[in-house]
Specification:
It is a single chain. The protein is α/β, with parallel strands linked by helices and 217 residues long. It has one domain: P-loop containing nucleotide triphosphate hydrolases (Rossmann fold, 3-Layer(aba) Sandwich), CATH 3.40.50. The chain is built from nine helices and seven strands; from the N terminus they run E-H-E-H-H-H-E-H-E-H-E-E-H-H-E-H. The longest helix is centred in the last third of the chain and has 17 residues, at 200-216. The chain is globular and about 50 Å long.
C-alpha cells in the first residue's frame, strides 16, 4: 500500500504520517528527515542538498528522486510518503518507478491550511538536535524552557523555521509543489482533501475515515 501525503510545510504531514503508519502498519518515509540524516552524516547527497535547504529552496529533483526511490525499494512498496513528491517531475518519476514494479499509489491525501496559521506554527517550532523531539513555544512547551524533556539537550530553532526562510518555503510550495495536486487530478486520481486547521486528533480521524472508505470500495 502506497499513500502520498501532500500539504505545505507545517501542515502536520509528519505527525499524521506517524498515525497512518501505526494504524495501517506501513513505513513512514519523510523526505525531510532522510535529507537531514544525509546532511548530518555529510554524505555526498547531504552536502549537495545543504545549500538549498538553508535558503528555503527545494532540493533539485534528481537528488530527491535518487534518495526516495531507494527508500521506497527498502520499504518494499508499503509506505507513506511524507514530503515527496514535491514537484510534477517527481510525481511523474514516482509513477514510472511504481509502474515498473507493478505497484501504484493507493491514496493521495492533501492537507489544506491557511498560510498565516502555518507561519505561526513553523516560526514557533523548536527542535532537539539530539533526539529529534519537536516542541512549540505556544502549543507544546517543554517542562523547562529551551530544554528537551526527553534527553535534556538544548532546543534550537532549525534554520528552515526562521521567519524569512518560512516565507520562502511557503512561496516555493505555492509556486511548485501545489501543482502536484493538479498533476494527480489531471491524471484522474482522486484527491482526499483534509482540513488541517483542526486538532491533531480530528485531522487523524478525518484521514482514517477517508482511507477506510477507499478500502471498503
Amino acid at each position: 500500500m502506497v499513500i502520498v501525503l501532500l500539504g505545505p510545510p507545517g501542515a502536520g504531514k509528519g505527525t499524521q504520517c506517524k498515525r497512518i503508519v501505526e494504524k495501517y502498519k506501513l513505513v513512514h518515509l519523510s523526505s525531510g528527515d532522510i535529507l537531514r540524516n544525509h546532511r548530518t552524516k555529510e554524505t555526498e547527497l547531504g552536502k549537495k542538498a545543504a545549500e538549498y535547504m538553508d535558503s528555503g529552496k527545494l532540493v533539485p529533483d534528481q537528488l530527491i528522486i535518487e534518495m526516495m526511490v531507494g527508500a521506497i525499494e527498502s520499504a518494499k512498496g508499503n509506505c507513506v510518503l511524507d514530503g515527496f513528491p514535491r514537484t510534477v517531475v517527481q510525481a511523474g518519476e514516482l509513477d514510472k518507478e511504481l509502474s515498473r514494479k507493478e505497484k501504484k499509489i493507493d491514496a493521495i491525501v492533501d492537507l489544506v491550511i491557511d498560510d498565516g496559521i502555518l507561519e505561526r506554527r513553523l516560526t514557533g517550532r523548536r527542535s532537539c538536535p539530539a533526539c529529534n523531539a519537536i516542541y512549540h513555544i505556544d502549543t507544546l512547551k517543554p517542562k523547562a524552557e529551551g530544554v528537551c524533556d526527553k534527553c535534556g539537550s538544548k532546543l534550537v530553532q532549525r534554520t528552515d523555521d526562521k521567519p524569512q526562510v518560512v516565507k520562502q518555503r511557503l512561496q516555493t510550495y505555492h509556486q511548485q509543489t501545489a501543482a502536484v495536486v493538479g498533476y494527480y487530478a489531471d491524471n484522474g486520481r482522486k484527491i482526499l482533501d483534509i482540513d488541517a486547521e483542526k486538532s491533531v486528533d480530528e485531522v487523524a480521524a478525518l484521514i482514517t475515515a477517508k482511507l477506510d472508505g477507499l478500502k471498503a470500495k
